[in-house]
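Closing statement on the NAP sub-project.
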Amino acid sequence: MRVLVAGATGVVGRPLVGALRARGHEVSALVRDEARAPAADRVVVADVLDRAAVLSAVSAARPEVVVHQLSALRLLRDDPAAAFAQTARLRTEGTAHLVEAARAAGTRRLVAQSIAFAAAPEGPPVLDEDAPLYVDAPDPGWAATVRAVAELERLVSGSGLAGVVLRYGTLYGPGTGYARAGGTALRVLAGKLPLPGGTGITSFLHVDDAVGAAVAAVESTATGVFHATDDEPAPAAQWLPHYAHALGAPPPRTVPAALAPRLLGWFTAHQLTAARGAANDRARTALGWKPLRPSWRDGLGEE
Ligand SMILES: NC(=O)c1ccc[n+]([C@@H]2O[C@H](COP(=O)([O-])OP(=O)(O)OC[C@H]3O[C@@H](n4cnc5c(N)ncnc54)[C@H](OP(=O)(O)O)[C@@H]3O)[C@@H](O)[C@H]2O)c1
């Protein structure tokens, strides 16, 4: 199939281009800077916030399937506010441009990246895709992020194309914040990620499995919203000490949950004390996908 990958220089996008080509697809890489493009059958250049440029790039590629792997989370370490604000624009304006361009180019299928950790912290410890999103989170930054996620999902589902939203778990592996040189790893190595009380659950996903889920979504005929997460949603009290040990860092000190927002910032405190995990049963059944790394124990902190 002719597949266009937007975000082809990213943590998931770059290996995804290679994986799709290895399966015989003809892949166009949509990039901002041609010099950094991965090896692809065609390279098209556009900033996805530039509507006219996106329409022209997608029409040149005439893709049957468009894959959206865009984010600005690379900015997280230096400027978290900008990272979230820019990513929100990519999820709203960028997605709208891609949908319009895909429809104009005769594309039939659209696969877009979302996140599996945007649910409101209500109900059981592990939630399915029907759980409400945390659009009214008390932190304005996170509420804005979740509203942008909801808008992306609405745009994909209402695009008139066969749409798949892949809600990725917290990514680990090469190039991610959890890689040995990543921002989270540096925080743990410096003893700056203490373990608060509480019951926050994280669902992880290795980057290779994010690629695998995207390949499965491209090749499937299923539509809908799916958690692409590993099989072992884990409380912070399990994964954080394991991660610190794998990194060769000191064990995280424990702190009362009530101090967590001040010590860690609202989002990290929420993730470690209250967030819910995400069940992957629907992706397994509908997409025929399963993680090759079923547990974060298979590599978190090791690469
Ligand atoms: N679920 C998750 O936990 C999750 C999801 C995504 C990312 N992350 C994390 O975010 C960190 C950074 O990853 P990353 O930035 O390398 O990869 P990325 O977020 O996976 O990739 C972002 C992609 O979007 C592209 N992009 C951004 N703005 C664009 C625009 N206006 N027009 C066209 N393309 C645009 C980037 O292109 P350029 O190369 O031109 O910037 C890049 O190809 C990693 O730690 C990763 O783990 C986590």
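The first helix runs from residue 13 to 22. With this model delivered, the sub-project is considered complete and its resources will be redirected to Aim 3.
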